[in-house]
Amino acid sequence: MSAVCFALSDRDLDPAVLRQEVEDRSAGGFVCFEGWVRDHHEGRSVDHLEYEAYPALCLSAGTALLEEAVVRFELRRAVAVHRTGELGIGGMAVWVGVSSDHRKEAFRACEWIIDRIKHDLPIWKKETFADGASGWVRCERCAHSHEEDATFRAAC
To answer: Looking at the domain 4-155, which fold is it?
Structure first.
């Protein structure tokens, strides 16, 4: 089994199946992140989301991102799957899971991976609001995470 797996899926994500891909008996820590579709954004009611991606670039860049995380955080395994297509409220849009010898590295790696996916990969999110209006959304908060990460590394 490979230490990393990045994928796109047009079907519902099953966290129990994905967790099996990360399990490693030599690991002492496992952390996962599940990103769900919420019913609001910036004070407006959301009806549903739609994700589009550029698959070839996503798969190569996503795999490289996970490979970097394995080295940077000394992980045993790293898996990330992002949905494409239309998702309703409560649907799981992204799942990230990592295993490592220790919990601290697993927590830090999981956060780093999701921030990088949202900021760096060619995956676009379109929100459709309850009033019928829609628009593409950019992850501005993820850009700030990179600044905080650089500050954290400089302090260590």
So the answer is: Aldehyde Oxidoreductase; domain 3 (3.90.1170)
Q: pLDDT of 28-41, one tens digit each?
A: 999 999 999 999 99
**Pair of tokens at residue 117:** 């996916």
Q: pLDDT tens digits, residue range 16-74?
A: 999 999 999 999 999 999 999 999 999 999 999 999 999 999 999 999 999 999 999 99
Q: Which residue stretches of the chain are H helix?
A: 15-22, 55-73, 103-120, 140-155
pTM of the model: 0.87
Q: Where are the domains of the chain?
A: 4-155
